[in-house]
Design a protein that fits this description.
Helix content is 40%, strand content 23%. The protein has 213 residues and is an alpha+beta fold. The protein folds into two domains: 3-157, Enolase-like, domain 1, CATH 3.30.390; 158-213, no CATH class. The chain has a four-stranded antiparallel β-sheet with strand order 3-4-5-6. Strands 1-2 form a two-stranded antiparallel ribbon. Helix 7 (175-186) packs antiparallel against helix 8 (193-212). The longest helix is centred in the last third of the chain and has 20 residues, at 193-212.
Length: 213
């Protein structure tokens, strides 16, 4: 991509239309640990990508590159990993933007086990939204403001180390650092138990493999 094409793309990405969803496309999360945070409607993200790069399939697309599930007691977690591609101003396809999301397929609730038949769709949508955020889609929401310029309720609270944070850190190859993160994660009160159990197992297995070397 030449310099002029790069500038044109950056101008589009940093435009208000791309970075700021209208209030009608925002939903406040009312329950659970994410209460008070803001959710961006997936269709707005898709429409914005279509305007930015062209219609899906010709200007941008994504593909599932990995998926799987893990059973922890009666709970079953699934994950979906996707690669997002977009066409640049010079007509070239970008390098892949990789993103992964987790969702419960079977979870334990007060009335018994619950099977979520929409879990694969939810995980794919979540992963796609995370990948789009690398292109600035809805950036002002992640920065703590909505379209009216008002602060989201939790902007002034410290950034919390959630499940996604520890997933990113799991690529570390220093067993000492991984052990510190593992103890920190075990003490966390903001990660759902089913996700925490999966992450703890991942860390413990990786630490054991690294210490054998």
């Amino acid at each position: 991509m030449n310099e002029e094409a790069k500038k044109n793309l950056l101008d589009k990405i940093f435009s208000e239309e791309v970075r700021t969803p209208p209030d009608s496309c925002l939903d406040e999360i009312s329950g659970g640990r994410m209460a008070g945070m803001t959710n961006i409607k997936p269709q707005w993200r898709i429409d914005t990508m279509n305007k930015l790069f062209g219609l899906y399939g010709t200007g941008w697309y994504y593909e599932e590159i990995a998926s799987g599930e893990q059973k922890i007691g009666d709970v079953i977690l699934i994950f979906v990993q996707i690669a997002l591609y977009y066409k640049t101003e010079s007509g070239e396809w970008s390098k892949p933007i990789i993103s992964k999301a987790i969702a419960p397929l079977v979870s334990q609730e007060s009335k018994g086990l619950y099977i979520d038949e929409e879990c694969w769709k939810k995980a794919a949508t979540d992963a796609l939204g995370k990948a789009m955020s690398f292109l600035g889609i809805g950036a002002t929401v992640y920065l703590g403001k909505n379209a009216s310029g008002n602060k989201n309720k939790k902007e002034d609270t410290p950034v919390k180390k959630d499940a996604e944070y520890y997933q990113r850190k799991s690529i570390i190859t220093d067993p000492v650092e991984l052990k510190k993160l593992l103890e920190e994660m075990k003490a966390s009160t903001i990660i759902r138990d089913i996700l925490k159990a999966s992450l703890i197992k991942t860390y413990e297995n990786k630490i054991a493999l690294l210490e054998k070397k």
